[in-house]
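Hi support team,

I'm filing this because I wasn't sure whether my run with NDP finished correctly. The job status page said complete, but I'd like someone to confirm that the output block is well-formed before I use it downstream. Pasting the exact inputs I used:
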Amino acid sequence: MTEPLKVGVAGLGTVGSSVVRILNEKAELIAARAGRPVVVTAVSARDKGRDRGLKLDGVAWHMDPSQLARSRDVDLVVEVIGGANGAAKSCVETAIEAGRPVVTANKALLAKHGVELARAAEEAGVAIGFEAAVAGGVPVVKVLREGLSANGVSRVFGILNGTCNYILTRMEKDRLSFAECLAEAQRLGYAEADPTFDVGGHDAAHKLAILSSLAFGVETDADGVYVEGITSITPLDLEMAEELGYRVKLLGIATRGPEGVEQRVHPSMLPRDSAIARVDGVTNAVEIDGDAVGALVLAGPGAGGDATASAIIADIVDIARGIRTPVFGIPAVQLTSPTRAPMGTHEGGYYIRLSVLDRPGAAAAIATRMAEQGISLRSIVQRGREPDFDRPSADPVAVVLITYATNEAALRRALDAIEADGHIDGVPQVIRIEKR
Ligand code: NDP
Ligand code: HSE
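And here is everything the job wrote out:
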C-alpha cells in the first residue's frame, strides 16, 4: 500500500474541526482521489480540555503549533489558527523551514506576508495551498492560477465576504437590524474571531489583494486597497436602492488600467438583474474578465466550517499527488510591484444621500455645487415625512442624488462645498454605482 500522507492540523476551531472530521469521515473517497491515504497524525489548539466532537485517539496534541510544524509525525501542515502574525505566521514559517508543504485558509497572513512566504516556499521546494483563503469553498484560486493561464485579466471583482453579504441580505429581506444579523452570522461560524475585520471591509481587502496578485502577476499590496465597510449602510439606503433598481453589496474590485492597479472594497450599488447583485446570504461570487475567455462568474459558499474544509482538502489532495505550482501562479521573484491607481481618478456613477435642512434654496445650492464640478445629476429624490407633506419639515429630510459617471476627486470637491454651505446635517452617505 502507498505510504499515507500524515497531516498536522494547527487550529481546531470552526474550520480546523471540519477538516479533521471530513478527513476521517471520507477517508476512503479522499484516499482514492489523493492516490494514497490521508491521515491526521497531529493537532494543535490552545484548550486541550474542550470537547470538539472529534475522534482524536492516537493523534499527537501540541500546545505549540510550531512544534507541530517541525514534528517528524507530520508531512503536511494545515494552518487554520488565523491572524497575520503570531502563532499562525511562526507555524507556517517553521513548516517551510522544515521542508513541509503548507495548506492555509489565512488570508490575513497571505495578504500581508504572502510574497515573502512564497519566496521562502519556492526556495525550499514546498507548496503553499490557499484555496480556502479566498471565497471559502469556491475554487477561485485554482481557476485564476491554473484554469485561466491563457488569459490576460483586466478585472476581478465580487462578493468576497460572506458575513457582510449575509448581513445585507437579511437587513434587506427580513428587515432585521445590523446588530441582529451580525450576531446570527457569528453564531453560524461565518465571522472572523474579530468581526470588525468583516464589517469594516478588511477581510474582503485581504482576499482582494490575493486575487490581484493571482490575476495581474503583482506582489500582494494589502495596504494599497481602498477600504470602506458596511457599518454606515442604513435600511433607508437599501430601500432607496430597491426603488432605483439596484441592490447594495460589499464588493471587492481590482482592475488593471493605464493608471495602474486599482483595488477597492466598499459598498456598491449594482443593477438588480446583474449576476453578482442576485447573490444572497453567505454566498460569495467572483467575476473574472479574461481576454480570451470573456467574463466568468463563480459562486458558492464563502464561509462556514465544512465549505472551507472542502477547499483545504482539495489542496491537500493536490499536494498528496505531488502537484506543486508557483504560489501566486508565476515564480514569486517574477511578481512585479504594482503601481497604485489613486482613488481620486476613479470614474463612475454615485448614489449620494444627504440629510438636508428643509428650507428654500437648499436643493438649488446642492445642484449648483455639483454643476460647478461638471457633475450631471441623473435623479433627485426627496423623502419628506408624510404628515408634513404640504410644508417644509422641521427636521432634516433625506435627499438622494444619483449622478451620471463622474470622477471621485470632483465628487469629493462638490461634497466639501455642500458641507461648507451649511445646508446639510451630518456626513453625506456615498455609495459607488458599479457597472454590471
Ligand atoms: P476559530 O477562531 O474558530 O479557530 C481558531 C483555532 O485556532 C482555535 O482552535 C484556537 O484554539 C486555535 N488557536 C488560536 N491561537 C492559537 C495558538 N496560539 N496556538 C494554538 N492554537 C491556537 O477560527 P476559524 O476556524 O473560523 O478560522 C481559522 C482560519 O480560517 C482563519 O485564518 C480564518 O480567517 C480562516 N477562514 C475562516 C472561515 C470561516 O468561515 N470561519 C472561512 C475561510 C477562512 P482553541 O480552540 O483552543 O481556542
Ligand atoms: N469571515 C469570512 C467571511 C470567512 O465572512 O467571509 C471567510 O473567509
